[in-house]
Design a protein that fits this description.
Elements: H1 12-21, H2 51-56, H3 71-80, H4 93-120, E1 123-127, E2 138-144, E3 153-160, H5 167-171, H6 175-178, H7 202-205, E4 212-213, H8 218-221, E5 227-233, E6 239-241, H9 248-251, H10 273-276, E7 277-278, H11 281-284, E8 288-292, E9 303-304, E10 306-310, E11 316-320, E12 322-323, E13 330-331, E14 333-334, E15 343-347, H12 357-362, E16 371-378, E17 387-393, E18 404-410, H13 420-446, H14 463-475, E19 489-492, E20 495-499, H15 509-517, E21 529-530, E22 535-540, E23 545-550, H16 551-563, E24 573-574, H17 578-587, E25 601-603, E26 606-611, E27 636-639, E28 643-646, H18 656-659, E29 668-677, E30 683-693, E31 697-708, E32 712-723, E33 728-739, H19 748-757, E34 772-782
Parallel strand pairs: 4-7
Antiparallel strand pairs: 1-18, 2-17, 3-16, 3-18, 5-6, 5-17, 8-15, 9-14, 10-11, 12-13, 19-20, 20-22, 21-29, 22-23, 23-27, 24-27, 25-26, 28-34, 29-30, 30-31, 31-32, 32-33, 33-34
Helix pairs in contact: 4-13
Length: 786
């Protein structure tokens, strides 16, 4: 490999030639501002237009005013683009307890409001589960209104132990049939489990009836059929009918189940509909009802009379005796309504068939076995002392399965009917929150812990022992015991680790002058970016030893490498032993030539080497005092009574299984960058040191990476490893490089990364060939504690 330039920045001619040869690589592209200021896209524009340019440009376009954006559009944009400002406050103990108290107070306040409101609701409940009826089966109940019940008064029926949420029950319905599917046959009703045709219940519909049940399903089969007739006797002794509005608009104002009766033409008794469908629901909810004509008459139960027809098989079957040709439709009753004293027929106030309000309400299945459903609304205020008489035609059996049923008269307010459970639950929830807040405060008072202290973390199975050790260090006053990443000093197992701040500033002119005075070359050969006070130190006070990496020693090693003369003859002053150092110098040329450079001059000391450098007045090259690539064999400075021993077989000297174990926590970490330079847009040169302190060892990786575009990749790595409890430090130093301008050159970086991934940190797997080099030195530094 030919030697290369030493000069920090090549001559102007070389830079121009380099840029012409390498096109736009390495340039900083700046978008032109010409179009913003009325100039053509190809014209040159300053970063900021002056008034003269704006005034003298005749082709300048007039910039339109930016339209005003409304606050609503801006707010919508911020919400949709997720650009709203936000904050995440630190959740301290006091703040957490305050939030808990506030939330508990809100729950208690809202629960009290609900409870007071629920107690203000007036409610009368009449249980008639086991009350026997008269000879006609009518149950009579009476009650006295104790407090005023302002209109509207809601009428509910309440059922107990009715499990409408059973899986088979809740799915036994066909919604298409409820919407008017009068032409559906048995095969279309698979969802109506166990109750699709009349022969599924022969004791009710007869042995020969095989028609489709309309509607089908277990929910429809168990529909609530009790009817209520209410009258009121006021304080003057006068009786009056207590009208209950049962219209679908009042009972189910927002129905969750859509139902629709068949067309009236299909319900004519001679229609084909009755030959295929058993419209049994007409007997329960007919178009007309037979009710008492006045409040003094006790209702007598009646049912819709039946007539016969023939099905498709010619069997004689029954159907409801209703006439749908009249307006409104009418029905005959058994016994006839006209034969009952004090009774008359009226249009069903709740609707008929599938559109009956009580049927639609029943089809909405509740989640709990004890529930209540609305039956109607009384638009009248009930006064204290009013006597309410309720006649119940009890047709729905609850005793057979141990259930219960009752009638409820109730008022309502802003939160609905009487519901003490919600208010009581909120009060209990709020009380628990308050108790939790008190516990948080008392716990913090008795066992206070520092927020963010990692000493409380359990990292692995050795966590408790580690926590005890860290607590002892903290009590002993050792600096920042495992406090956080980036702390300037940390102690563990007798070792003291120190480094510059991770955000160390770039050295200014004064600091560069100080460094220049300590180095055998001037400022021109100091990298563009050196970091003020950049250093990393590892010391053991009990043994009087110290390992350090700092910018001054590293740059001095750059000069050593360039000049080819070691400053000392031992391995403790910042590089590998002298004999190894000289061997590397014989195999690795110390100069690097830049591709695309034009101003090249021969090195008078070596005819085979060319360097890029400025010329003097006699047009003779002036050799620089340092390597312009800042290549260095710097491997750290070891101070103190060390004993150095070279390791003959370096394979396996580093415990890679521990270094790659991700289950181990990092107690302390630091990263220091000594310098960084872009080599006048010809590549990059960087020196970075990283330190990790783990539960059982510490590990240092110092990396010098050089990339000369199109010419060379060079990677110099120093690894230091010490296992706690031993008295030795292993140093593994490797110099790898690869030419990129020769025939058959391969991507060296990929090759190195592949080797490291296989656990190879030296030269294993990187066989040298033409244009490549790998040089490795491993040694052991021993010490004795006092």
């Amino acid at each position: 490999m030919s030697d290369g330039p030493h000069h920090r920045r090549p001559s102007q001619a070389a830079i121009i030639g380099h840029h012409e040869a390498s096109s736009t690589r390495g340039r900083r592209h700046i978008l032109p501002k010409a179009n913003l200021w009325g100039m053509s896209a190809s014209s040159e524009a300053p970063d900021e237009p002056s008034e003269d340019i704006l005034a003298e440009d005749p082709e300048q376009e007039e910039v339109e005013d930016t339209p005003q954006v409304s606050w609503w559009e801006k707010a919508k944009h911020d919400v949709l683009q997720q650009t709203l400002p936000g904050t995440v406050p630190l959740l301290t103990v006091v703040r957490a307890a305050t939030c808990v108290f506030i939330f508990g107070g809100i729950c208690i306040a809202y629960g009290l409001a609900l409870l007071i409101s629920a107690n203000a609701v007036q409610e009368i409940e009449l249980d008639y589960t086991s009350i026997p009826g008269d000879a006609n089966g009518v149950v009579t109940m009476r009650t006295i209104v104790q407090n005023e019940m302002k209109a509207p008064v809601y009428v509910y029926y309440r059922l107990g132990k009715v499990y409408q949420n059973h899986r088979v029950y809740i799915t036994s319905v066909n919604t298409d049939q409820l919407k008017g599917g009068s032409n559906m046959v048995k095969g279309d009703l698979d969802s109506c489990t166990d109750w699709r045709t009349a022969d599924d219940e022969p004791t009710r519909f007869g042995e020969v009836d095989t028609r489709v049940l309309y509607p089908c399903g277990l929910i429809a089969r168990s529909v609530f059929k009790d009817t209520f007739y209410l009258s009121v006797k006021n304080s003057t002794g006068a009786f009056a009918e207590l009208e209950v509005d049962q219209s679908p608009e009042r009972v189910t104002p927002k129905p969750q189940v859509v139902t629709k009766n068949p067309e009236l033409a299909d319900l004519v008794q001679t229609s084909q509909f009755y030959r295929t469908h058993n419209f049994w629901l007409l007997e329960e909810f007919p178009p007309q009802v037979c009710v008492p004509a006045n409040s003094s008459t006790v209702p007598i139960p009646t049912r819709v009379a039946r007539t016969t027809t023939t099905d498709l098989d010619g069997n004689v079957v029954e159907m409801a005796d209703c006439d749908f040709t009249s307006d409104p439709p009418s029905c005959n009753f058994d016994p006839p309504c006209s034969s009952l004293p004090g009774h008359e027929t009226r249009e069903n106030p709740a609707g008929w068939g599938l559109e009956n309000a009580h049927f639609k309400n029943w089809m909405i299945t509740p989640l709990v076995p004890d529930f209540q459903k609305k039956w109607g609304v009384i638009d009248r205020t009930l006064q204290p002392g009013d006597e309410i008489t309720v006649y119940v035609q009890s047709a729905w059996d609850a005793l057979s399965f141990g259930g219960s049923k009752s009638l409820i008269l109730s008022t309502a307010n802003w939160q609905g009917g009487r519901n003490r459970m919600l208010g009581g639950g909120l009060i209990i929830c709020g009380a628990l929150y308050v108790a939790w807040g008190l516990y948080i405060l008392s716990r913090d008072k008795s066992k206070h812990r520092q927020i963010g202290g990692v000493q409380y973390f359990h990292f692995h199975e050795k966590g408790p022992a580690m926590i005890a050790k860290l607590q002892q260090q903290q009590q002993a006053g050792e600096a920042a015991a495992a406090a956080a990443v980036g702390m300037p000093e940390f102690s563990n197992e007798g070792w003291v680790f120190g480094s510059s701040e991770p955000s160390a500033a770039i050295a200014d002119a004064v600091e560069r002058d100080d460094i220049e005075k300590k180095l055998p070359f001037d400022r021109r050969w100091i990298p563009d970016m050196i970091f003020s006070g950049a250093h990393l130190t590892i010391s053991r006070p009990t043994a009087g030893i110290k390992i350090s990496f700092d910018i001054t020693a590293a740059l001095a090693a750059v000069a050593e490498w360039h000049q080819g003369v070691p400053a000392a003859d031992d391995g403790l002053l910042g590089r590998v032993p002298s004999e190894k150092w000289r061997e590397l110098g014989e195999r690795c040329p110390r100069q690097v030539r830049v591709a695309a450079a034009q101003n090249w001059h021969p090195d008078t000391s070596n005819p085979d080497v060319h360097v890029l450098s400025p010329t003097n007045n006699n047009n003779n090259p002036q050799l620089p005092k340092a390597d312009w690539t800042y290549s260095t064999a710097y491997a750290g400075t070891f101070n103190g009574p060390w004993t150095v021993e070279e390791i003959d077989d370096p394979s396996g000297c580093l415990p890679l299984h521990q270094l790659t174990d991700r289950s181990l926590p990092i107690l302390w970490f630091s990263q220091v960058c000594l310098w960084e330079d872009e080599l006048a847009d010809n590549g990059s040169s960087k020196y970075i040191i990283r330190l990790r302190v783990m539960p059982g060892f510490w590990y240092v990786l110092a990396s010098f990476l050089l990339r000369v575009d199109g010419v060379l990749v060079r990677l110099v790595e120093t690894r230091l490893f010490h296992h706690f409890g031993t008295k030795e430090v292993i140093r593994d130093w490797t110099w790898r490089e690869r030419r990129l301008d020769g025939p058959g050159a391969a991507p060296f970086r990929v090759k190195v990364e592949a080797a490291v991934a296989q656990g190879l940190v030296g030269c294993e797997g990187l066989a040298e060939d033409e244009g490549s080099l790998c040089f490795k030195v491993s040694d052991k530094f021993s010490f004795n504690d006092s």
